[in-house]
Amino acid sequence: MNRVILLLSVMCVGVSSQPITENQRLFSIAVGRVQYLHLVAKKLFSDFENSLQLEDQRLLNKIASKEFCHSDNFLSPIDKHETQGSSVQKLLSVSYRLIESWEFFSRFLVASFAVRTQVTSKLSELKMGLLKLIEVRTHRHSLDLTNQNSCLTDHLTLQANQDGAGGFSESSVLQLTPYGNSELFACFKKDMHKVETYLTVAKCRLFPEANCTL
Amino acid sequence: MMKNLSEVVLLLLLLFFSPYAQGTRYSPPEKPALTRCRSPEKETFTCWWEPGSDDGLPTTYALYYRKENSDTVYECPDYHTAGENSCFFNKNDTSIWVNYNITVAATNALGSTFSDPVDIDVVYIVKPNSPEEVVVTVMEDKGWPFLRASWEPPNKADTRSGWITLIYELRIRLDGEDDWEMHLAGQQKMFNIFSLRSGGTYHVQVRCKPDHGFWSEWSSTFNVKVPDYFHRKKSTWILITVFCAFIFLILTWLLHMNSHSLKHCILPPVPGPKIRGFDKQLLKSGKSEEIFSALVVSDFPPITSSNCEDFLVEYLEVYIPEEQELMLEESKDLHDNCLKSEGSTYDNDSGRGSCDSHTLLMDKCRRSKEEGRLTDQEESPIEAQRHQKKWNEGPLAYSHDDIVSPDTSSGRVKTWPSVFSPLPQYSSLNQMSSLEKVKQHCLSDSLFPPSSSSSYLTQPGHDNNKEALGASYWDKQHRSLHPQTQALWQIQAHSEVNISNVGRKQAPVDLQPLALRPTEYVEVQRINEEDMVLLQPVMSDCGAGCPRPRQEDDYSKVQGVNNDNMLLLQREVAGHKAERCPCEDQEMNGAMDSCVLSSIVTQKPTACIDTGTPARDDTALAVSGYVDTATIFTTY
């Protein structure tokens, strides 16, 4: 009897340890992806800024002060305190929503077709990875797999609705279009950095030994 | 009144000058400018501004900011923490990923001036502090030292939670030099430095940067001294290296001096093909067919006049000045024999011989005449002479046009075909008739056209098949052989005479084997005391040029022709050559001045002749004679 319990516990540990390792790997990949996307966003923004003339830049600055991104509607932590106070699950879900939204908006980025398609594909991949991470985390907390999946999507949708219009309302799109280029670039850059920070914090919280405390 | 005037003037003056005294008062302050805003850890940030020129009036500065998407204007919460002309935003007032619109206002009594607004996002103005606790230690790796630098992130940067990700950079400098050596360390907090100079002092500094931000300032310098390591080993190695280099230089010099001999020793020169007249390029081209054809086609053996003279002269030239001169051209046959090639050149002087040769022919004629006289069994020498004359006439009529190389054409055709093989039969016959036949044969074959020869052939009346065959054979030979062979026949005729003479002495049993064979050669064995040329057959299995038995004196070589047109034969006695024995035939002088016979007929009892006339001469008689006329050509 004791031996059976011992065996079962060992198996459970083994089973549970495996997803953790896989989780860590997935996290590392996600962080890497978002870092790359952030760099791309930065480059696009700087290229766009450089292409503008001086007067246009002043105008841009004026506009930028009033800009708002569609992601502003999302309730995302905006400082360290809030970020560190948020759970990993929340961080992951916020990140997922951001990536999902930008997967839609990246098509409007003013860039070459190759860059645009590459950015969109990377965003899609990141979205899938985040979804997987979320699933893993929710699965760990719950035993029912099938329910969890549906629950997860419902939860995400609910959050989106709570944030307000999900950020995909026509008004927001229309508002973006007149200043589509500059605002898009700025917002894209900012949002990518947000996701990068959230994921890094989440990873370091989960796996402190991985480049967080050296 | 005066006092009032002065007071008014003073007032006026004051009024006038008062603005000058307080000029600044009347102008608002100059516009300040925000210089920079920095956040050390992405949690707080500070902004500094530069005040404008101060007119003296007290000016107050105020910073106002506005967050994005909000019109609420806030004032700087803290003016003092960060120092003069600064505004410090603490954690509570700092929002990340939010655009701040900041303005500074300068206010004095006259007014206030606002600076240009600046938009910042805290995320992008992060400039951390320098790394702390930079420690450099000297460590050792298999006897070679290296430096290990370690540091800590700045105090306030929260890298542990992942809020900030820092990358570090290290730089090192040797004491006394000006150039820094940069090393990027990434996110690690430790770095190894190798390739150090022993005994040197190094200065190390570290700085850091967030993934999207500014580089920090360099940390404080850490000085470290590398100990001296193993001078002895180094110096020993240096000595060894220098010594080896020295030896290497000496060896090189020696090699250079003896390069030639070494080259010959190690790489002996490959001898190229040294075939005269052979084109080496053919070998290089590598086409075997061309090479072989070249070997065959080329003029081998090489031809020079001297070589040609060395080669066998097949024919002797018998020159009869009073009679028709035998203008015999040199036979091409000789050259064919000599050269084994087609189309080689030849001079007309050489190659005369055989039946057409003056000298030999006459010699034989003379001898035959003499023999005829001596033996008394032959017809009169006159007849012989007459025949001889006739014979001499023959060559004249001869044309050299249809020169065909004899069947025996080979390198050294020194022997004439024993076309007279049937002749031995005549030995048993009537001598007269035989002689006649011989003469006739000779005449027919050599001197006259085939048509005329037939008449002669019928004369003997000996319907000897062999004879006929022989005659016919001679006929053929006559057509086929060169004129040079005429002399051969003639001489052979002489020899036949001899044979016929001698044949009576003995049974020419041994001559039987000499049946009608197409090419059978005889050679001069020696000259007996009676001035007779003794002939012997050449070895049957031997072709031309077969070495003859040297048991007797060998008179087969003509050494030369002297000025008196005498044929000088060379006697070789059993291995060593005799001296030249110029001899004259005085008897012949009357008839032929230029008829030269040497050593064959001599009346001088010199050593040339005779020594050695063993009884072998009887048995050694050959059917025909052979004289090597090669030496004649040397003198020609």
From TrEMBL, chain B:
Q: Where is this region: Disordered?
A: 369-390, 449-468
Q: How does it sit in the membrane?
A: Single-pass type I membrane protein
Is Transmembrane helix tagged as a keyword?
Answer: yes
Compartments in which it is found: Membrane
Residue ranges crossing the lipid bilayer per the database entry = 237-255
Provide this UniProt record's keywords sorted from A to Z: Disulfide bond, Glycoprotein, Membrane, Metal-binding, Receptor, Repeat, Signal, Transmembrane, Transmembrane helix, Zinc
Q: Which CDD domains match?
A: FN3 (cd00063)
Q: What's a Pfam family this protein contains? A: EpoR_lig-bind
Q: Which family does it belong to?
A: Belongs to the type I cytokine receptor family. Type 1 subfamily.
Query: Which named protein is this?
Result: Prolactin receptor
Q: Which organism is it from?
A: Paralichthys olivaceus (Bastard halibut)
